[in-house]
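Box 3.1 A note on notation
Throughout this textbook, protein chains are presented in two layers. The first layer is the amino acid sequence; the second is a token string describing backbone geometry. Keep the layers aligned when reading.
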Amino acid sequence: MDYYRIAYIANTLGIRGELKVLLISNVPDRFDGLEDCYIDTGKERLPVQVERHRPYRKNCVAIKLKGYDDIRSVEPFKGSYLVVDRANLAKLEEGHFFVFDIIGCKVLTTDGEAIGEVEDVLSSGANDLYVVKREKGEVLIPAVKEMVKDIDIAKKTIRVQLPEGLVE
């Protein structure tokens, strides 16, 4: 089973077992409705339940775990990650995908010609860029509707319609 990092446990917060976590997820309300997750210490994954959470500072959330009621019980978690299984990932809007699902997809033209494989996804501000590894180096493909016509995560394929000269 795969696990996905959603937050980094930066520190304890107060004496009643709260933790200060830095969001890795770009979903600001990530902890709304989330109960089950794991603390990944690097050696083990400890199942925990989020009792409550509150905004703390920019990109930070204060969380309280069920059954951990004082600072001593949560101190060992500093420097660990909160992770979730696939079933507990944030729900995305239609047409949006996780970066880890896009990486490794085969990129094909709408005519079925193979271009290469997505090696990375860069966030450029206006839109993401797919870094596609090919035999002749790499090409950057903007992730815009005008070019990306279909993404099939189950088949690990992306169909694109590229302007003349982008790929030679």
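Residues 71-74 form the longest helix (4 residues). The CA atoms of residues 97 and 153 lie 9 Å apart.
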